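Second attempt. The first submission of AAA+ family ATPase had a stray character pasted in from the spreadsheet, which I only caught after the job came back as garbage. Lesson logged: always re-copy from the clean sequence file. Corrected sequence (660 aa) follows.
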Amino acid sequence: MSPTKTWTIANQEYLMAAIARVRSYLQIHIQRLNPEAEFVSLEEPARSWDLPTPPSLDELSDRFGLSGFERDILLLCAGMELDGTWGTLCATAQGDAQAQYPTFNLALDVLPSPNWMALTPVGGLRRWRLIDIGVGNALTQSPLRIDERVLHYLVGIEHPDERLVAAVSRIPIHVGEMDRLCASHRQLAEQVAGMLVSEELGKVPIVQLCGSDVASKRAIATAVCSAIGWNLHVMAGDVIPIALGEITELMRLWEREAFLNNSALLLDCDEVDSNDVARESAIARIIENYDNPLLITSRDRRHPRQRPLITFEVEQPTSQEQRELWVNTLGPDAAELNGQIETLVSHFSLSAPAIRAACLKTKGTNKIATDNSNEFGSQLWETCRIQARSRMEDLAQRIESGSQWEDLVLPDIQRDTLREIIAHVRQRAKVYETWGFGGKSGRGLGITALFAGASGTGKTMAADIIAQELHLDLYRIDLSSIISKYIGETEKNLRRVFDSAEAGGSILLFDEADALFGKRSEVKDSHDRHANIEVAYLLQRMEAYRGLAILTTNLKSSLDQAFLRRIRFVIQFPFPDANQREEIWRRIFPKQTPTEGLNYPKLGKLNVAGGNIRNIALNSAFIAADANEPVMMKHILEASKSEYMKLERPLTDMEVKGWI
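This time the job returned cleanly.
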C-alpha cells in the first residue's frame, strides 16, 4: 500500500472517529429526552495518530482558528453527508420528524462549550464559508450544510472549488525551481523569499514584480514559493469580475482555498488595460484588502492608495546568463553545436523557461549527433523563432511572402546598402560585444533604417528579403493605428510592440512613418509637445532594439532632418524607369504560368511601380484563366485598365501603343 493511500485511509478513519464522538453527543441528548435510550460512551480521537502529516480535520481547524465548538458544528454537518442514519438522529434529537438536518439550535443544545460567537458572520464557520445556512427559517432553526469543497478536503480529496476554476489556476511547482533561474533572477528570488517569511516586517508584505519579461517574472514567483514551501495559484487580472459583490465573494472563496492549500496568490496584471477603470478599481480592491501572501506581476508599477508594495524590476537575463542557461539546459549536446549557441544568444533574448522549452521541444524531435549538429542548431533556431511569435501575433501582421533577391529590381547602390544592413544584423554581437564597440551604453546600438519611396517601389519586398536572408520573422506595424489621442497611450502601444519583439529578434517594419514623423513645427500647445515626445520615444526604442527596425515613408521630404540623422540607413527606392519596369515584367510571372506573345519592352512603357505591375499581372492571370487561355497582351491590357481606374489615372495611348 502506498504512503499516500495509507494516509488517505488513516485520515478518513480519524475523521469518522471524530464524527462518532459527535454522534455520541447526539445520542446522549436523545437519552436525556428518552431515559430508556441506551447510553453511549464518548470516543475522543487521539491527535497523535501515526500519520506522516496531520489529518485534514486538524489542519483545517488550526488554519481557520476554529474553537472546539465550531469544530464540532463542522463535524455535525459532515456527519450528515457521511452517515446515512444522521438525518434520523438529528430529527430525534430535535423532537421533530421533519427536521432531519443539523441546526445551530441543535448544536447549542447538544455540543459541549456552546458559544454564540460561532453563529455570527465574523465567526470562522460563516466568515470562511465552511458551512452553508438554509433560508426561510430563523437563524437557529435553519438547516446547516457543510460546503462541498470543505467536505472533500476533510476526507482527503484534493479537488479545486468549481466556483474558482474560471478565475484561479494552480501553477505546478517542481523540485529545484530556484536552480532553474539565471543567477540574477535567483538572487532576486532568494531576496523576495527572505522578505516574505521575515518576522521583522510584521504583516506579510505584498511583492510586485515589474518588467516586460512575463515568463521570468512567473518563474521567479514560482521559485519563491518553492523555497518557502507554499503552493502557488495565479489569478488573471484581465478576467476577474468587476462587480463589488462578485469580487468580494471570489476573494472570500479564494482566501479559504489559500488556507486549505497553503497557497500564495499570483495576481497577473501583465495584460490588464490600464484604461479599464472598473477593472483597475477591482484590482486595487484586491490589493488593499487581501491579507494573505500576494505577489503581483505587472509591466508598470502600481501605486495603490492604502497599501504599500515592495517592488522589484525584473530584467531580461543578460547575454552571458542566456549562454549559461543554454549550456546547462543542453548538457553534453551543447559542445556539439560548434558555436551556434552564440548565434542564438545574439539574435534571441529568451527567458530561462523559454530556453528550457526550446531545448526540450527540439531534443524531442531530433537526437543530436556529431554529423547532424548543424541540423540540430537550425531546428533550435526555428523553435526559438516560432516560440517568440505568440507575443507578437496580436500586435502586428507577420509577412510571409518568401521574396528573393531576383524578385527585387533596384539600382546596385540600393541593393548594396540592403546587404550592409544584413551584415550589421548578422554581426551585431561580434562587433558590439566581442570587438568592444558596444561600450558601456546601449544607446545607438540598435540597427535602424528608413525606406523611402512611392507606393509599390519595393520597400516591403526589400524588408522581406532581409528577413529571408536572416531567417527572422518580419512584422508590419501600421503607425497610424498605434497613434492614440490619449496622452501616454502611443508610448504604451509602442512599448508593447518592442517588448514583445525583443524575444524573437523580429524585424519590425513601421509603415506610414509620416503619420508620426512629420516635420516639427513650433510647439503651440500640449498636443504638439506630446507628438514630439512620441517621436522621441519611438526613436529611443528603435536605437535600443536588439533587432532591426525599419520605417517606411512615401515622402522623405516630409520628415524632419533632425530625426533622419538618428537613422543609421536611409534608402531611397526610386520609381522604376522603362528598362527597370521591363525587367520587372520579365520576372513577374511564375514559371508555371502559360503565356503567349508577351512583348516585354512594350509592357515596360506602362508607367507604374512594381507593386502595380504585380497587381496587373495577377489580375491578367485570372482573366486569362477564366477564358481558358494563356496570358496574352489583351488580358494584360484589360487588367491595366482596371488598375489605372483604381489609381484614378488615365491609361494613355502612348503607354499601350502596339499592344494588340
